[in-house]
Design brief:
- The chain folds into four domains: about 5-225, Rossmann fold (3-Layer(aba) Sandwich); about 240-425, von Willebrand factor, type A domain (Rossmann fold, 3-Layer(aba) Sandwich); about 445-625, 3-Layer(aba) Sandwich (Rossmann fold); about 635-705, Rossmann fold.
- Helix content is about 35%, strand content about 20%.
Length: about 700
């Protein structure tokens, strides 16, 4: 027996969400007052398996549900579709404006008969009902609800239309009766299933779930939830999308398999409407570093795009730095300068094709994709990591893998419907969730001191410059948050800008990206460290000395210093400046370790190139955001007990001076180090207790005056 299989949990869940029952009049009044509203479309199975007798029970069920819900300008609008081989609209969302008109139509509608094609019915609703012309108020932020009722197995596919509806954030309730396919119901219904799915043994049980269904509909469209509903765009709009294909060009793929990928792309692109006003295409190949093959606005016709794809050459490379490549496409391709139409509301799409796991950290690249609202697909073969692709893709359903590249062509049939769905706005990307919370900001002032010598070289300097920009991009920059200053050095020091020069993150990053090498002939790191301490960590340069803000220094150098660094490094520590040291193979590691506040803050990338520097980001950012440069002081109580007997006559001034010097080196204060002093001979004489002289001047003055 499966009667009301899901009902007990559904009933409890929905009642907790919707509150205790009220009378219908009270409920209707509450709906208006609370702003509850929805567009509700009933999709009813009218295939031959139902029959006229059972269809009458369906009419009564629909009648009772509508009667329990409100109809009006600010409440619930209804539409009704019967589905079989040819879906039939009974009425649209904007056909009726009163409850009585809707109820009258339901009472008099005819039973049609036909085959069960639920997938076709769902597609029909998307094309003919979820549009502004059909009365949908999705553009006004009104939740969209579909209630599907069926008694059998669908003769067509459900995966694509169900995925499209879920991607568009449509609330779908699935009601199965008698021989309904439970697996199909689960595929159709929205989450959570215990709220959106009903599986009944017979048609007479429909009457029993009216109250539960109404409660769950109310809960799903309550004002608290309605704000989460993504606005559906009119799916009759011009087919358009900006698609970047990000292809693994590392040795994981190899030249033979790379040719297979190109054949796959050619076959896929031949089936898409490519043009400047339709679908634009760009291609990026990645290995150690990403390389633009062509941008979204490079070619304007399908023939040109296909010709360019066929002519692509295999790059090769030991590494497959996917994280770096994701950052690259967001910064260089999904932008207006890169040919993107993102400002016009055109969907942004990334298709990643991978042959193995990433060689670098992908986390920040994935965040960048989500922040840019890019619709991401993950295609993999051979050793590609499915878990990694799922992390990158917008949804797990948008990840497609095959064991070997020879089967890669099979993925075209799976990918193509989704690409078309995005371009036709059948699939709408839900914007990233932005969580707003009150946090305590770790204020800090950070100086980047960069090797600008001619020996470093322009390519290395540019890589360092881009790396600094990426670090700053991930910091909370602002006058009341983190402040940044940058200086270059070689035989001299040139400040690029001070803490108080640029108040916003955008201005800081722009200034960094405009930096040109100093091109000095020598490298005097010691002098540069002194310059930073004396000229940048000052109030006139914008350092917030009065607030005691932590001082951090990030040194990036490519060579050994020609001057002495030991004393300047010690002065940094004495000034509570926390130094990070980054150097390539040309730098002196021992020198870097002496400069750094701690050996854990020394970073030595293989070379100053994008990929190795990118790999350092997580390890650098964590301490950069949290450490302060001032070790936490422990509380201590120190008792000095000295010999005050006749044995010390003549030597007491030496002992007293010794005590004075020791205490003078301590940080004496009530919440830190407290001092007590006593002398002994035949008995003990207490000079000062812990709670008597709690400041350094007081205790030192006491010591100076002590006598045996």
């Amino acid at each position: 027996m499966r009667k009301h299989r899901h009902l007990p949990l559904v009933a409890v869940f929905c009642l907790f969400l919707s509150g205790f029952p009220t009378t219908h009049a009270q409920q209707q009044q509450a709906d208006v007052k609370n702003g509850a509203a929805a567009d509700i479309i009933f999709l009813v199975d009218s295939s031959w398996t139902i029959g006229e007798e059972h269809f009458q029970l369906v009419r009564e069920f629909l009648y009772d549900v509508v009667k329990s819900l409100a109809v009006g300008e600010n409440d619930f609008h209804f539409a009704l579709v019967q589905f079989n081989g040819n879906p039939h609209t009974e009425f649209l969302l904007n056909t009726y404006r009163t409850k009585q008109e809707v109820l009258s139509h339901i009472s008099n509608m005819s039973y049609i008969g036909g085959t069960n094609q639920t997938g076709k019915g769902l597609e029909y609703i998307m094309q003919s009902h979820l549009t502004k012309a059909a009365g949908s108020r999705a553009g006004d932020g009104v939740p969209q609800v579909i209630v599907v009722l069926t008694d059998g197995h669908s003769k067509d596919g459900l995966a694509l239309p169900s995925a499209e509806l879920k991607s568009a954030d449509v609330n779908v309730f699935a009601i199965g009766v008698e021989d309904a396919d439970e697996g199909a119901l689960k595929e159709i219904a929205s989450e959570p299933l215990n709220m959106h799915m009903f599986n009944l043994e017979n048609f007479t049980s429909l009457h029993d779930i009216v109250g539960n269904l109404v409660s769950c509909v109310h809960s799903s469209v309550s004002p608290e939830r309605a704000g989460d509903t993504e606005t559906l765009k009119d799916i009759t709009a011009q087919d358009s999308a900006d698609i970047i294909f990000l292809i693994d060009g590392s040795n994981n793929t190899g030249s033979v398999n790379f040719a297979v990928i190109l054949d796959f792309l050619v076959n896929l692109l031949e089936k898409l409407p490519i043009g400047t006003q339709q679908i634009r295409v760009g291609v990026v190949q990645f290995s150690d570093e990403p390389r633009t093959m062509f941008s979204l606005d490079t070619y304007s016709t399908k023939a040109q795009v296909l010709g360019a794809v066929k002519a692509l050459g295999f790059a090769g490379g030991e590494l497959a730095n996917i994280g770096l490549a994701l950052d690259f496409v967001v910064e260089n391709h999904f932008t207006r300068a890169g040919g993107s139409r993102v400002e016009e509301g055109v969907p942004q799409v990334l298709v990643l094709i991978s042959a193995g796991p990433s060689s670098d950290e992908i986390r920040y690249g994935v965040v960048a994709l989500k922040q840019a609202s890019v619709f991401s697909f993950g295609l993999g073969a051979q050793a590609a990591s499915r878990a990694e692709l799922q992390h990158i893709a917008t949804d797990d359903n948008l990840v497609f893998t095959v064991p070997e590249f020879r089967s890669f062509g099979d993925l075209q049939e799976k990918l193509l419907p989704y690409i078309v769905g995005v371009a036709q706005r059948h699939i709408v990307l839900k914007p990233p969730t932005i969580v707003t919370q009150v946090i305590e900001v770790n204020k800090r002032d950070i100086v980047f001191l960069v090797d600008g010598s001619s020996a470093l070289g322009l390519a290395n300097f540019n890589a360092i410059r881009d790396f600094i920009a990426k670090v700053i991009q991930r910091l909370e920059i602002g006058q009341d948050l983190i402040q940044v200053a940058v200086a270059q050095y070689a035989d001299t020091v040139r400040p690029e800008f001070y803490f108080n020069t640029h108040p916003t993150k955008r201005e800081v990053i722009t200034a960094v990206r405009k930096m040109k090498p100093l091109d000095g002939s020598a490298l005097y790191t010691g002098s540069a460290l002194d310059f930073v301490r004396n000229n940048l960590f000052t109030s006139s340069a914008g350092y917030r000395a009065a607030e005691g803000i932590p001082k951090l220094l990030v040194l990036i150098t490519g060579g050994k210093s020609l001057d002495e660094i030991s004393q300047p490094a010690q002065e940094l520590k004495r000034s509570s400046i926390m130094a990070f040291a980054i150097g390539n193979k040309g730098a002196d590691q021992a020198e870097l370790e002496e400069i750094a506040f701690d050996s854990s803050l020394v970073f030595i990338p293989a070379e100053f190139r994008a990929a190795p520097l990118q790999g350092m980001l997580p390890g650098l950012l964590a301490p950069l955001r949290t450490l302060s440069g001032t070790p936490e002081e422990s509380k201590r109580d120190i008792l000095f007990l000295f010999d005050g007997s006749a044995n010390l006559v003549g030597q007491f001034p030496v002992v007293r001076d010794f005590l004075y010097k020791i205490i003078d080196e301590l940080n004496v204060k009530p919440e830190g180090t407290r001092i007590a002093v006593a002398q002994y001979s035949d008995d003990v004489k207490v000079e000062s207790r812990f709670d008597e002289h709690q400041s350094k001047p007081e205790i030192l003055n006491l010591v100076k005056r002590m006598k045996i």
